[in-house]
Amino acid sequence: MTLPVRNRALTVAGLALAGLLAGAVPGATAATAEPATAEPAAAAAPDIPVTAVKQHLTDLQSLAAANGGNRAHGRAGFRASIDFVKAELDAAGYTTTVQQFTYSGTTGYNLVADLPGGDPDQVIMVGSHLDSVTSGPGINDNGSGSAAILETALTVARTGHQPSKHLRFAWWGAEELGMVGSRYYVNNLPPSARSKIKAYLNFDMIGSPNPGYFVYDDDPALEKVFKDWFTGIGVPTEIETEGDGRSDHASFKSAGIPVGGLFTGAGRTKTSAQVQKWGGTATAFDRCYHSSCDTTANISDTALDRNSDAIAHAVWTLTSGTTTPPAGKVFQNTTDVPVPDNGAAVTSSVDVIGITGAAPADLAVGVDIVHTCRGDLVVDLVAPDGTVHNLKPYSPSDSADDVHATYTVDASSQTAAGTWKLRVQDRARYDTGYIDSFKLTFP
Ligand code: TRP
Ligand code: ZN
Ligand code: CA
Question: Transmembrane ranges (predicted)?
Fold first, then answer.
């Protein structure tokens, strides 16, 4: 391995800088003198050192140079890029998974990295495509997003930031062939895992040499997180319009997951009004878009720096739980309960305490049952006073696996406090399973 290893002194200098610059970040608390490691979960994000982001770009360019000049799907330079990013994340303590897929007869890869911890039911995902086109090393498209989220992930680990939500990063394969990797990932998520992803943030081309500052106009709350940050540093933004849905966020959006992201422009020409606003010239945002000249020379350090810091801000803000309303009071039983084949009903219970008065009209009942034929099952919620709410009837024509669902129950004529039961009975022979989890959420 001849990869240049990031110099240790640089890392330490970056951290010291982070502490000093914290006061300049919009939304920073008064306690800016505290080291990053001692800050509470809701603290302002540290500065992401752009020198470290640029070092990742240099590394990616070296990998392209050593492998035929590109990092495209199906080429050695792509696999080398995956291995490089994975090694950095493994060393930082992430749990990494390489997901393999096949496209046009060639093997592709997605790299997924989970930070251990955080609420597993609330996942914040951050992703960038790691593949280039075949014509060049793909440093702005999309080494820039890939390197910025890598350094953000490493900064999370380095500072010991413990998000209250679960944080997951991803580097996609074969985006340039039509968002193939991200679509494969989303399509292969079990429905229960899909519904746990509360936001997906996408970064594709964030260091364009003649940059604009574009924010995806999609989920309003996510859009606001970015807009507010740029307002705080005095940089005007515009809504991204150069091909809505032209990157991996489209895969998540079509699965109903809220999406957001940043972009500095591709082949489109900067208008004179945009030159007034952002500087630069009335030429393409990226004159090397999809060309061999998309190298480390094709990067605006200022744009890369601002966008990297904006990413860290969004990650800190969204994972600390301050931007979405509290999830309510949750009572859960995750002890497995076997359901006897064609036999007696069994139950899983939760004891609700600390809530006075009536249960809500929109009690959320989370049910996870692993079973080889869910049609066999009758599933009821039994209130503390014995009232039975049927959640799922016996349905012999439904031979699908498993029940993974959240039912909304009007329980307003029962009191909240007491023992609630999930009751499951298997009414047909042969197929079997178990209650995996039972959860009540009081709004
Ligand atoms: N992903 C596109 C590509 O690789 C680049 C692009 C064009 C883009 N328009 C966009 C990315 C808008 C994000 C948003 O060709
Ligand atoms: Zn591209
Ligand atoms: Ca059965």
Answer: none
Domain finish residue from 271, 293, 319: 319
Q: How confident is the model at residue 404 (pLDDT cuts 50, 70, 90)?
A: confident
pLDDT of residue 43: 64
The verdict on 68 and 184 lying in the same domain is yes
Nearby residues for ligand 2 (ion, Cβ within 5 Å): 141
Host domain of residue 247: 20-319
Find the mean pLDDT for residues 264-271. Answer: 98
Of all residues in the chain, what percent carry a pLDDT higher than 70?
88
Residues 300 and 337 in one domain: no
pLDDT, residue 138, reads: 98
- Cα(133) to ligand 2 centroid in Å equals 6
Which ligand 1 atom minimizes the distance to the CA of 141?
4
Q: Is 175 a catalytic residue?
A: yes
Q: What is the CATH number of the domain that holds 135?
A: 3.40.630.10
pLDDT: which is higher, 83 or 437:
83
Would you say 212 and 160 are in contact if contact means Cβ atoms under 8 Å apart?
Answer: no
What's the pLDDT tens digit per position in 317-344?
A: 999 843 333 346 878 777 889 999 999 9
Question: Given a cut of 80, is residue 109 above it in pLDDT?
Answer: yes
How many whole angstroms from 297 Cα to the centroid of ligand 1?
20
Quote the pLDDT of residue 331: 84
